[in-house]
């Protein structure tokens, strides 16, 4: 770049056009289409787009087997009910899991915000709370799996109806749970970097050797919110439908 | 859309060196609250055992509202430029075509199962 300053896009972004014209100008521009998003962020978005297709395929597979089976589909409202204080409450475990995950999304959003304010302490605490809520979610999912396996649910059959129920359940929730688990691990890695102040002193990452900054917290947040987003669809289509 | 929602002074894409997303905390708390309310409402759909089209409609409305809030505010999509918004949000529309194709396919499978295995399988 001709400009020697540390903000190569600063001059360019002042001249950026808004709206549809800006969209055409950005996409027909030299060098890069994403004028204000860093590659770090753009690539995370593109990864999430590919992940969207993966989860879409799972949910479409679910739709296909559910629409084409001649046997009755198990009633999820009863399958996922829990007996609390002698009373059977439908779907209660899934409702609690949903609230846990939404809470973690909230704390993540706050962590990103405090990161940009360079408030290390608040960012660290909020990241750890997010990781804790994520781990709680995975724990509850493990409980749910254990309960269903004890009740006889297998990938090839279950006591209540269409055998496809088990395979779809284990695949979809298992893949989502894997995403949450990976998210918790990376939350802890990012939290450690915040704790050590590596984003304040722009220490280079061990893997990419790019200079660290608090945008990493936002990109981590994109992944985490995506995990919550996927759950919104699983909750609607698999548990409520 | 993007300009109005932006809260910090200056234009939507200020020339800040880090292009960071600086927004007041209140936005996040409001969205957080709405996500709780919408989740509670979608749980209520099951709890009160609404059936048929009413159930589907409510589930889909609450689902899309929640997804929209998460993507728009928590993932900062409303504050990004259209180049990124379209690049990410348009391709998933192809999924709807796939849904349509597979719906036709499963109707056909169900039909042949009824035809050859008899009703009730």
Automatic annotation (TrEMBL), chain A:
TM ranges: 42-65, 89-112, 124-145, 165-190, 220-240
Membrane topology: Multi-pass membrane protein
GO cellular component, one term: plasma membrane
The protein's assembly and partners: Heterooctamer of two A chains, two B chains, two C chains and two D chains.
GO molecular function: cytochrome-c oxidase activity
Source species: Limibacillus halophilus
Protein name: Cytochrome bo(3) ubiquinol oxidase subunit 3
PROSITE patterns: COX3
Biological role stated in the UniProt entry: Cytochrome bo(3) ubiquinol terminal oxidase is the component of the aerobic respiratory chain of E.coli that predominates when cells are grown at high aeration. Has proton pump activity across the membrane in addition to electron transfer, pumping 2 protons/electron.
Keyword Signal in annotation: no
Family named by the database record: Belongs to the cytochrome c oxidase subunit 3 family.
TrEMBL record, chain B:
Keywords assigned: Cell membrane, Membrane, Transmembrane, Transmembrane helix
Topology term for the membrane: Multi-pass membrane protein
Location(s), subcellular: Cell membrane
Spans traversing the lipid bilayer: 27-45, 57-77, 83-104
Keyword Ribonucleoprotein: no
Gene Ontology CC, one term: plasma membrane
Secretion signal, residue range per the UniProt entry: none
Domain of life: Bacteria
Protein's name according to its UniProt entry: Cytochrome c oxidase subunit IV
Keyword Kinase among record annotations: no
UniProt-listed InterPro entries: Cyt_c_oxidase_su4_prok (IPR005171)
Principal location: membrane
């Amino acid at each position: 770049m001709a400009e020697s300053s540390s903000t190569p896009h600063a001059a360019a972004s002042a001249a950026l056009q808004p709206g549809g014209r800006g969209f055409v100008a950005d996409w027909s521009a030299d060098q890069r289409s994403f004028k204000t998003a860093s590659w770090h962020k753009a690539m995370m978005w593109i990864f999430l787009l590919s992940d969207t297709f993966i989860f879409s395929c799972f949910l479409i597979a679910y739709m296909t087997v559910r629409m084409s089976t001649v046997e009755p589909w198990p009633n999820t409202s009863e399958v996922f009910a829990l007996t609390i204080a002698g009373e059977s409450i439908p779907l209660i475990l899934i409702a609690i899991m949903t609230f846990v995950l939404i809470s973690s999304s909230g704390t993540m959003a706050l962590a990103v915000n405090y990161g940009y304010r360079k408030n290390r302490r608040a960012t660290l605490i909020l990241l750890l709370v997010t990781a804790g809520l994520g781990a709680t979610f995975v724990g509850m999912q493990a409980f749910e799996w254990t309960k269903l396996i004890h009740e006889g649910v297998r990938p090839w059959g279950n006591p209540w109806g269409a055998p496809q129920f088990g395979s779809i359940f284990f695949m979809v929730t298992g893949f989502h749970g894997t995403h949450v688990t990976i998210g918790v691990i990376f939350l802890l890695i990012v939290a450690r970097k915040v704790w050590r102040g590596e984003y304040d002193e722009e220490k280079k990452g061990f893997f990419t050797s790019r200079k660290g900054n608090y945008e990493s917290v936002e990109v981590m947040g994109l992944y985490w919110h995506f995990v919550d987003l996927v759950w919104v669809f699983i909750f609607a289509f698999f548990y409520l439908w | 859309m993007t300009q109005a929602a932006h809260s910090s002074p200056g234009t939507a894409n200020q020339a800040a060196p880090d292009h960071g997303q600086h927004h007041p905390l209140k936005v996040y708390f409001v969205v957080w609250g709405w996500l709780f309310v919408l989740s509670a409402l979608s749980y209520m759909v099951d709890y009160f055992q609404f059936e048929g089209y009413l159930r589907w409609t409510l589930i889909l409305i609450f689902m899309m509202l929640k997804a929209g809030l998460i993507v728009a505010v928590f993932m900062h999509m409303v504050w990004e430029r259209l180049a990124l918004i379209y690049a990410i949000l348009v391709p998933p529309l192809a999924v709807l075509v796939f849904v349509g194709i597979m719906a036709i396919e499963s109707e056909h499978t169900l039909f042949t199962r009824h035809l050859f295995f008899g009703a009730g399988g």
